[in-house]
Amino acid sequence: MPRSRTAPPKPRARAKTEPPLGAHMSVAGGLHRAIDRALSVGSTAVQIFVKNNMQWFAKPLADEEAAAWSQHPQRSELRAAIGHTGYLLNLAATNPDFHERSLRSLREELVRAAQIDLPCLVLHPGAHMGAGIGPGLRRVAESLDRIFDDLPGNPVRIALETTAGQGTCLGHEFAHLRDLLALVKAPERLCVCLDTAHVFAAG
Fold first, then answer.
1. What is the phi/psi pair of residue 122, to 5°?
2. How far apart are CA 101 and CA 140, in angstroms?
3. DSSP code at position 16
4. Fewer Cβ in 10 A, N or C end of the chain?
5. Which residues of 60-97 are buried (b: 16+ CB within 10 A; e: fewer)?
6. Which DSSP helix (H) or strand (E) runs through 183?
7. Where in the chain are the domains?
8. Per-residue model confidence (pLDDT) at position 27
């Protein structure tokens, strides 16, 4: 006899009293496709890259693409949606050209995140490249101050992410994030992203 084929079980609906649960989703085909992908696996939260994460810059986000995200018929089913910056930028960079590229890239990503009403954008603090932890943290704080001065009305907060501590990366100690919050002129525009895998790797 032929085997009976049964449809795979639908993802369990999560009660609204449960904490939002989700994952990072691809935006291939458009930002709004991440909503479809998240809901297809039962997520109530999603993280996305607001542009190609391995490129410095992108063309401006078209109004149509922003609307496809914001007006997605099931957007309200996601209780949390956040962005993550690209992997190239380093606010602690000692190379002037690299540092300026990082600043410009972050500005663009904050603008794109605001276009689709993301509350925050997760950021790796950066790598001091041998300059030392103290100088590196000060350079990151000064960079954030520049960004915030350039975008005074941007509502998107930057979520400083804990890191695994590879190389000269900052953020593998909670004290690094504490110091950054203390150093910037507008700490209310920052928050913290606790990456538990990174915390575990950092010891």
1. -75, 135
2. 14
3. T
4. N
5. ebeeebbebbeebeebeebbbbbbbbbeebbbbbeeee
6. helix 174-183
7. 22-202
8. 97
Are 33 and 26 within 8 A, CB to CB? Answer: yes
60-74 tens-digit pLDDT: 999 999 999 999 999
pLDDT digits (tens, 9 = 90+) for 11-61: 655 556 789 999 999 999 999 999 999 999 999 999 999 999 999 999 999
Nearest Cα neighbor of 155 from 192, 194, 121, 124 is: 121
Distance CA 102, CA 96 (A): 10
Q: Which amino acid is at 73?
A: P
Q: What are phi and psi of 135, to 5 degrees?
A: -60, -35
d(CA 176, CA 125) in angstroms, rounded, equals 9
pLDDT in tens, 151-194: 999 999 999 999 998 999 999 999 999 999 999 999 999 999 99
Give the CA-trace dihedral at 156, 14, 9, 78, to 10 degrees: -20
What's the whole-model pTM score?
A: 0.89
CATH value of 22-202 in 3.20.20.150, 1.10.10.60, 3.40.50.300, 3.90.79.10? 3.20.20.150
> Can you name the residues that pair with 169 across neighbouring β-strands?
127
